[in-house]
């Protein structure tokens, strides 16, 4: 069990700053997901926790203790790599056992641990196999078992599911959630897939270009995005965002927050447009509606409209989001919030 | 038409391969054949290819013409020591060059390559003087010490190590493995084909070495097999080719045996294309 803290951490590669003055607290026992587009520094952050690529300045604390001078193997962390990094010349058993041997765990205890862990991840029958004879999913389990057997206080996972096929990925997602529940240790999980982040996290840390954009539980991240980037990174399709007026303020709403109807409704925001595209996905249909103020994606339960038909988009006041010229969220308690609502009401029907 | 063409091509390719095979194998067969002939047969014209009666006694004669047990012991000691020491030096060096980042790495590696390009003929006099100076000229050491490091081996092994994913080494560090353990349990087992190849090349070149021991030795007690066999030539002023060839067969057998053991690994080393 351990909490992790970054204090004014900067990381540069060859003079190029990838992460600058980052502060972050990862709570003990939580499933924290680091998410963001490719190249935003997620792996870099994870590797700093592990000690594989130490920070250029600032400090990383594990359980309140500065670990800058502690070797990776002594930090009580285990890591699952994206490509699994299984030792190819060792059998499954030797792979799992390797860390224990290095930590001078006795033979009897080792055997017992390896067997119980391998049973837990479904590898018991494969203990004497070489990794090259295993499937992708089984290799993934070897990597997991190798991490689990050391009873680490922190689990680090770098896109562990990205090499699996879609079906197995969904299954492993559930298994990892259950594993976290069972172990109760701190999990730090990296992914570029917002769906994975939303479905697994207790807390999501969303990054872009080395800067933390928002740190929140999934539902808050979804309902109250703290800036335009978050609003558009989380959710498929992303939040609709458009300019409100000349002063750089923007308004936005989720595709499923809008009602689509043939007649104008009585919502605060109402806009007339034409259906440009229609994607029928089974349980829902996604329309793109084009209007004078831009194109909006609308998600509907029912499939009532056809392409080129005219329709009204309506959004109730409590589903509207506003972002300032700096792209930051404008909260409802903000004095200007009311003015922006009124401004939108004034633009009814576009 | 195209079928006939195809068969012609196939036939030509087999003919060519057979020709190459003969060119390479013939000297070997000639050596073995001569080693089993009588002195008279070796001089006969036209030359005999198959001895009338295999003269196994030639081997006994060759081996009793000098202190061959001593020569053999020296050859074995020298070659095995060189290989053992080379591996001890080469593995950590290649590991550092492949997986560490440190100041001056490229300069140091260039120096290694440079050493690889300097022929022994250039350095033998200063080396001999140095060995004499150290007072070890009358031991086997002058035949071992100059070859403790193998630049070609470091180069080849470094290339091989570089193909091993960084994450595997990092996973081992997170598994609390020491650098020594990483080399022994991960890098070395993953590089067996390369190590076998390097060891074999090293074995062949030092087992067969003639020039260096010729310069460095002045008594039978420290001479290797190659010199012993060369000296068969000088007995009684005439060339006893059958005896010399018997000696050569003895010299070559260990190389064949080692090659048979290593060949599988060597083929692997050349087709190696990364680890998934
Ligand atoms: N070893 C390295 N040397 C130089 N630049 C690096 C290195 N590792 C990562 N970077 C750079 O740092 C940035 C963040 O990389 P990374 O943390 O791997 O991103 P992510 O995991 O979020 O996709 C990228 O721009 C990448 O090019
Ligand atoms: Mg990454």
In short:
The complex is a heterodimer of chains A (350) and B (276). Chain A is α+β, with helices and mostly antiparallel strands and 350 residues long.
Please describe what this structure looks like.
The complex is a heterodimer of chains A (350) and B (276). Chain A has helices at residues 42-50, 92-102, 107-120, 136-148, 166-183, 194-200, 218-223, 228-233, 337-346, and strands spanning 4-13, 16-26, 31-35, 57-62, 65-66, 77-80, 154-158, 186-191, 203-208, 211-216, 240-243, 250-253, 259-261, 269-280, 285-291, 294-300, 310-315, 321-323, 329-330. Chain A has two domains: 4-223, Rossmann fold (3-Layer(aba) Sandwich), CATH 3.40.50; 236-345, Nucleic acid-binding proteins (OB fold (Dihydrolipoamide Acetyltransferase, E2P), Beta Barrel), CATH 2.40.50.140. The mean pLDDT of chain A is 94. In chain A, the strands form four sheets. In chain A, strands 6-7-8-3-9-10 form a six-stranded mixed sheet, with helices on both faces. Chain A has a five-stranded antiparallel sheet with strand order 13-17-14-15-16, with no helix packed on it. In chain A, strands 2-1-4-5 form a four-stranded antiparallel sheet, covered by helices on one side. Chain A contains nine helices and 19 strands. Chain A starts with a strand and ends with a helix. Chain A is elongated. Chain B is 72% helix and 0% strand. Chain B has helices at residues 2-35, 39-43, 57-63, 68-99, 105-117, 120-134, 151-162, 166-174, 179-190, 192-207, 211-216, 225-232, 241-271. In chain B, α3 packs across α13 (241-271), α4 (68-99) crosses α7 and α10 (192-207) packs antiparallel against α13. The mean pLDDT of chain B is 89. Chain A binds chain B through residues 50, 52, 71-74, 77-79, 81-83, 85-90, 98-99, 102-103, 132, 146, 150, and chain B through 165, 167-168, 170-178, 181, 185-186, 189-190, 275-276. Magnesium ion binds at residues 42-43, 158 of chain A. Residues 13, 18, 36, 38-44 of chain A line the site of adenosine-5'-diphosphate.
């Amino acid at each position: 069990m351990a909490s992790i803290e970054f204090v004014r951490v900067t990381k540069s590669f060859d003079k190029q700053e990838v992460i600058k003055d980052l502060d972050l607290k990862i709570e003990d026992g939580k499933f924290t997901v680091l998410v963001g587009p490719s190249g935003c520094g997620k792996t870099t952050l994870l590797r700093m926790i592990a000690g594989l690529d130490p920070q250029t300045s600032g400090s990383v604390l594990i359980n309140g203790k500065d670990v800058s001078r502690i070797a990776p193997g002594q930090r009580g962390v285990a890591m699952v790599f994206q490509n699994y990094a299984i030792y190819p010349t060792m059998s499954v058993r030797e792979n799992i056992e390797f860390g224990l041997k290095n930590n001078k765990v006795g033979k009897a205890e080792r055997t017992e641990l390896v067997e119980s862990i391998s049973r837990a991840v479904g590898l018991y029958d494969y203990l004497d196999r070489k990794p090259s004879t295993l499937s992708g999913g089984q290799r993934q389990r070897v990597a997991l078992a190798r991490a689990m057997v050391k009873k680490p206080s922190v689990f680090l996972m770098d896109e562990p599911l990205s090499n699996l096929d879609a079906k197995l990925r969904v299954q492993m997602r559930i298994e990892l959630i259950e594993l976290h529940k069972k172990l109760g240790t701190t999990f730090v999980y990296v992914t570029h897939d917002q769906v994975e982040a939303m479905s697994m996290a207790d807390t999501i840390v969303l990054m872009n270009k080395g800067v933390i954009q928002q740190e929140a539980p999934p539902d808050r991240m979804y309902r109250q995005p703290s800036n335009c980037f978050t609003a558009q990174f989380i959710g498929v399709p992303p939040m609709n965002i458009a300019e409100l007026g000349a002063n750089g303020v923007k308004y936005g709403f989720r595709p499923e927050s809008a009602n689509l109807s043939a007649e104008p409704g009585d919502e605060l925001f109402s806009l007339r447009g034409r259906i440009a595209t229609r994607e029928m996905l089974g349980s829902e249909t996604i329309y793109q509606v084009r209007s004078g103020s831009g194109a909006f994606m609308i998600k509907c339960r029912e499939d009532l409209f056809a392409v080129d038909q005219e329709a009204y988009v309506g959004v109730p006041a409590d589903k509207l989001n506003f972002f300032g010229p700096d792209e930051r969220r404008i909260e409802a308690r903000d004095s200007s919030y009311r003015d922006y609502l009124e401004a939108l009401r004034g633009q009814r029907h576009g | 038409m195209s079928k006939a063409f195809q068969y012609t091509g196939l036939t030509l390719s087999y003919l060519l391969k057979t020709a190459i095979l003969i060119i390479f194998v013939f000297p070997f067969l000639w050596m073995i054949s001569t080693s089993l002939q009588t002195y008279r047969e070796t001089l006969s014209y036209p030359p005999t290819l198959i001895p009338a009666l295999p003269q196994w006694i030639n081997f006994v004669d060759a081996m009793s013409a000098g202190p061959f047990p001593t020569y053999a012991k020296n050859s074995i000691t020298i070659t095995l020591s060189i290989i053992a020491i080379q591996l001890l030096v080469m593995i950590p060096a290649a590991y550092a060059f492949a997986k560490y980042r440190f100041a001056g790495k490229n300069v140091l590696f260039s120096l290694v390559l440079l050493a690889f390009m300097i022929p022994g003929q250039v350095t033998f006099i200063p080396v001999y003087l140095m060995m004499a100076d150290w007072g070890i000229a009358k031991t086997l050491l002058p035949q071992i010490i100059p070859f403790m490091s193998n630049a070609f081996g470091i180069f080849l092994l470094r290339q091989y190590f570089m193909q091993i994913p960084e994450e595997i080494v990092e996973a081992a560090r997170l598994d609390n493995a020491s650098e020594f353990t990483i080399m022994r349990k991960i890098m070395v087992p993953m590089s067996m084909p390369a190590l076998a190849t390097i060891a074999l090349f090293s074995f062949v070149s030092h087992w067969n070495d003639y020039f260096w021991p010729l310069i460095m030795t002045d008594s039978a007690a420290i001479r290797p097999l190659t010199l012993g066999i060369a000296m068969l030539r000088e007995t009684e002023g005439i060339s006893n080719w059958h005896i010399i060839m018997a000696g050569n067969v003895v010299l070559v057998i260990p190389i064949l045996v080692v090659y048979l053991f290593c060949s599988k690994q060597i083929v692997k080393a050349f087709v190696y294309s990364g680890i998934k």
